[in-house]
Design goal:
The chain is an alpha+beta fold and 712 residues long. Helices cover 43% and strands 20% of the residues. The strands form five sheets. It has a six-stranded antiparallel β-sheet with strand order 8-7-6-11-10-9, sandwiched between helices. The protein has a five-stranded antiparallel β-sheet with strand order 2-1-5-4-3.
């Protein structure tokens, strides 16, 4: 026993103490630790004192984009971005002199460089092995982009950068198409998806058009149109009015999924409405070949992108509308001035023709009468032409009243059915309870007729002409620039409300270039002799002078829709009493003071008055007329004066001063410039009459008779 017990006692005295149980008894420790190194989820590098990589595990290879055997032997500085490599070398040298453990979670912002040159944000733990007799340091590297919160923050930062990219583009360019073309590329890059597109809704809100896209499938190429119905992908988003996420097209049952989507391998999708002041005008959509690809973050990103794009669209469209309005305003001022001078010339020509026509020496000459009649017709056409110029320049005299658009359209349609090509089908769609509009009924009917004639010419083989009316609230934002000449009212007043009158045809349509110039006077695409180019320009002037706006929606080969926006009648107006017939007899010996600065016009009007049996005193200026009164001329029964009398006193002020001296004096003012008549209509007493040049002797007679009857 002693012998037996002595042996172990001797062994215990001369041998190392026994090991604690580890569970690895019977296993090769080197094999176990090699397996741990290979399987460890963090990236592990073993680096010597010179910075050379001695060992690397598969996680490190996957993170850094190398094969394991490519990493072994590399200098660790290769994994450091170029911009911070010198700083890293000095840090590694200092660390080599005093190596120490550094755990994860020190919140140091570190970056590793991959083989392809890309960078990844990492955290690094350092474990020196010198205390274990080994000249190495173990670096454990962790991709912090894999952390949920960090990943989300990086994702948001990336989305913000892409939003900023679109914002910079929107500021730098005025070309709307450039902005639209960049949006799908921004979406696919930001969301790492295969397909993205911008849809825009047409003016009638009946179809979506593909404005731009990336990775488009069959039947959705640029320019393709899809009906705005709830069973189509864009139509469903429109009907919902909010973002729509598709998790799996194969299981989608809310709308019809085109087979081309499935054929292209598309699985999930996200779409958001594109809205302008709460009104849907289009849609952004993105599609992916991965299932359940889009979540809340992607929805927020696409909504932000949609809002930014809508703002850009509003700005570009408003600027274009304003620039177009300003160009037309400049042309309007020019044409208004031309019309004023031309009307004076026509007054002289027309007046002298009428005098010649009544001369006894020519009264029996049939050939001379034929020539005079032809010349008179030409002057009437000239007067109509200047009237259209004045309409375009918004200087015509309007007599607005409440107009029942339903009754007006049915009356106009009856006339058009009798006069237009029988192959043209006319349809009328008027909203129930549509309020009256405030406009000059005659001018409104003329405007609609002008548009209908253009539509007829655009449908040489027949087609459909559709009239539609509906209340629409405030003007669309893109049209508000047309009303830049409107006086500003009370800022607290409720915004004006409008009625939209649209005239749509199924004709040849317009190109963008033609549509851009459609409202310009004398611009026409018709053959020579078939149009003056003043039809739509007069519509533009009339609608704007009526405190409204007009829009054209047209595509080549796809018809045209012209929409007039006219103000609603806000409150009941007293009915206009029909005028009683006026006795057109001019009393013999009527004493008239004629004040006209144009000598030729003065001669013609003097002749008219003389043939009417009037006693006429003439003056070229207001000052001459007042001097004659001071010298004892008169008394007079009627003052007939032009409004514009050269550089001196205007006719309106002259009339006021003379009427103070002669209270019973009748006043008849005339002008070839309708804006003067408009101003006078607002300023002068109701008893004064306004007469537009050019006028015939019979028109002058009727105007004189009315003003004399009013005086009585």
């Amino acid at each position: 026993m002693a012998e037996a017990t002595g042996k172990p006692q001797d062994a215990a005295a001369g041998a190392p103490p026994p090991r604690a149980a580890t569970g690895f008894e019977g296993f090769d420790e080197g094999s176990v630790f090699r397996s741990l190194f290979v399987a460890y989820p963090d990236s592990l590098l073993v680096v010597d004192r010179s910075g050379r990589i001695m060992l690397a595990n598969p996680s490190a290879a996957a993170l850094l984009g190398y094969a394991v055997d490519e990493l072994v032997g590399l200098d660790v500085d290769v994994l450091v971005p170029d911009s911070i490599r010198p700083r890293h070398a000095s840090y590694r040298e200092a660390y080599g002199h005093a190596p120490r453990s550094r755990p994860m979670g020190t919140h140091m912002e570190l970056v590793a460089k991959r083989k392809d040159g890309s960078e990844v944000m990492v955290e690094i733990a350092l474990s020196p092995l010198q205390s274990h007799g080994l000249p190495f340091v173990v670096a454990a590297i962790r991709d912090i982009g894999a952390y949920p919160r960090v990943k989300q923050a990086l994702q948001r930062a990336r989305y913000s950068e892409h939003l900023a990219q679109l914002g910079r583009l929107a500021v730098d360019t005025r070309d709307l198409q450039v902005v639209l073309e960049h949006v799908p590329a921004i979406i696919t890059t930001a969301l790492q998806a295969e397909v993205a597109m911008v849809w825009l809704l047409d003016g009638a809100r009946l179809e979506f058009r593909v404005a731009s896209g990336v990775g488009l499938v069959a039947e959705e190429e640029i320019g393709a149109r899809i009906a705005n119905r709830p069973d189509t992908p864009p139509g469903f988003v429109f009907s919902q009015g909010r973002p729509v996420v598709v998790q799996d097209y194969a299981r989608e049952d809310r709308f019809h999924v085109p087979p081309a989507y499935l054929d292209a391998g598309l699985v999930s999708a996200l779409a958001v409405p594109l809205s302008d002041r709460g009104r849907v005008i289009g849609m952004l959509s993105v599609r992916s070949k991965e299932s359940r690809r889009f979540g809340d973050e992607e929805v927020r990103f696409l909504e932000s992108l949609s809002s930014l794009l809508a703002t850009s669209l509003q700005r570009v469209q408003t600027e274009e509308a304003l620039n177009h309005s300003q160009r037309l305003e400049s042309v309007g001022q020019l044409t208004g001035g031309i019309a004023h001078d031309f009307n004076n010339l026509l007054t002289v020509i027309q007046g002298n023709l009428q005098v010649l026509e009544e001369l006894p020496v020519l009264a029996q000459d049939a050939y001379a009468q034929q020539l005079l009649a032809a010349a008179a017709r030409a002057t009437r056409r000239g007067a109509e032409l200047t009237g259209k110029l004045l309409a375009f320049s918004r200087r015509q005299v309007l007599q607005p009243s409440a107009v029942d658009t339903r009754a007006l359209l049915h009356s106009l349609a009856d006339m058009l059915r009798r006069t237009l090509d029988q192959r043209i089908r006319i349809e009328i769609d008027t909203a129930a309870g549509c309020p009256p509009v405030v406009a000059d009924p005659g001018q409104l009917e003329s405007a609609l007729l002008n548009i209908a004639i253009n539509a007829r010419d655009a449908m040489p083989e027949g087609g459909t002409l559709r009239f539609r009316t509906e209340p629409c609230g405030p003007l669309p934002a893109a049209l508000r620039g047309q009303r830049n000449n409107e006086p500003q009212g009370d800022a607290s007043a409720a915004p004006a409300r409008f009625v939209a009158i649209s005239i749509a045809d199924s004709g040849t349509g317009m190109s963008e270039e033609v549509k851009e110039r459609a409202f310009e006077p004398f611009f026409t695409t018709k053959e020579a002799g078939r149009g003056t180019g003043l039809g739509l320009s007069t519509v533009y002037g009339f609608v704007n002078q009526s405190r409204g706006a007009v829009a054209i929606d047209s595509k080549a080969g796809q018809g045209t829709t012209v929409t007039l926006y006219l103000p609603q009648q806000e409150e009941a107006r007293p009915a206009v009493m029909a005028e009683e017939p006026t006795d057109e007899t001019i009393p013999a010996g009527l004493r008239v003071m004629l004040v006209e600065d144009d000598a030729e016009v003065r001669k013609v009007v003097h002749t008219f008055l003389s043939t009417l049996g009037c006693e006429v005193f003439t003056a070229a200026t207001a000052e001459q007329a007042l001097s004659a009164l001071d010298a004892g001329a008169g008394p007079f029964d009627l003052l007939l004066s032009d409004i514009a009398l050269g550089a001196g006193m205007r006719g309106t002020r002259l009339a006021a001063e003379i009427q103070q001296r002669l209270p019973q004096l009748a006043v008849l003012l005339m002008s070839g410039f309708s804006s003067e008549l408009l101003d006078a209509d607002r300023e002068v007493p109701q008893g004064w009459e306004l007469l537009r040049k050019p006028y015939t002797r019979s028109e002058l007679t009727r105007a004189m008779a009315r003003v004399l009857a009013g005086r009585a």
